[in-house]
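[[Per-residue structure]]
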Amino acid sequence: MAICFVRAKVIGRSGGQSAVAAAAYRSGLQLVDDRTGDVHDYRKKQGVDYSTILAPVDAIGANDWLTDRSKLWNKVESSEIRYDAQLSREMIIAIPVELDRDAMINLIRNHVQASYVDRGMIADINLHHLEGNNPHGHVMLTMRELTIDGAGSVSFGKKNRSWNDKKLVETQKK
């Protein structure tokens, strides 16, 4: 029987966390935190079966950093100056084991696109253990709005506080 489970949490400096380190771990990659110089190497991590980054279509253009994991999360880190900054929201989503691999991927991609990316967030999706007994997804979300200048260059603007609304998070969980 399918289990419905979604947990939302914030990745923040107040907890001693780094968005770059979190992205490296969830994706099973090696990423360097440009702010601290720390190397986060999780290439030996097993169970990462699918990874992608979804960004609002109108923002992509020549802005390759939006879909480059290292550039994206280093840009998030450099956009935050506070020692206790909230860097990212993470959604941990259980995936029904009854689905086949393609259906699992499509379910999460469609949900993330409709619930987060269409609102303006960038989503870093990593799906773990799709062939096992505990298939689940880790979705890291940006917390700042994207701004596009006249030349088509994209940068982070202000934090969108409406994305923190408890009612919105409950709706997204459902």
